[in-house]
Structure to design on (126 residues):
């Protein structure tokens, strides 16, 4: 069993410098816990084999979903994008979030863009 120190989501978010660049702050079994700052829009993509959970810490996040549906999340709210569903996160103003994703989840699924971030870049330094 591994014992860790308590962690602060707020402090972890303060260390994030670049928008759309998630940082891994923990792991629960086969799930990464990540923090990220968002501004603007990411890219339409899907994760064929994994669900993805967005939890808003501050700001307001919109997630466009296939079929012309959209969800809006305020601080304290979360939404799970089901595996295989095309989606596009949008943030009109800066949003701080927690992501919970399977360790195999590629940042933008099979879509590669200038905003795609490898798992290696998401790992903590050191």
């Amino acid at each position: 069993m591994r014992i860790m120190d308590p962690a602060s989501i707020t402090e972890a978010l303060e260390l994030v410098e670049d928008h759309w660049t998630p940082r891994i702050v923990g792991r629960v079994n086969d799930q990464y816990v990540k923090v990220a700052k968002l501004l603007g829009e990411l890219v339409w993509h899907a994760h064929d084999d994994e669900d993805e959970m967005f939890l808003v810490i501050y700001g307001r996040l919109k997630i466009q979903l296939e079929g012309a549906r959209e969800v809006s999340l305020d601080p304290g709210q979360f939404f799970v994008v089901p595996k295989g569903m095309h989606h596009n996160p949008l943030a009109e103003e800066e949003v701080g979030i927690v992501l919970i994703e399977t360790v195999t989840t590629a940042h933008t699924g099979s879509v590669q863009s200038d905003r795609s971030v490898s798992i290696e870049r998401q790992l903590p330094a050191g």
Residues 9-122 form a domain with the Jelly Rolls fold (CATH 2.60.120.10). The mean pLDDT is 88. The chain has one domain: 9-122.
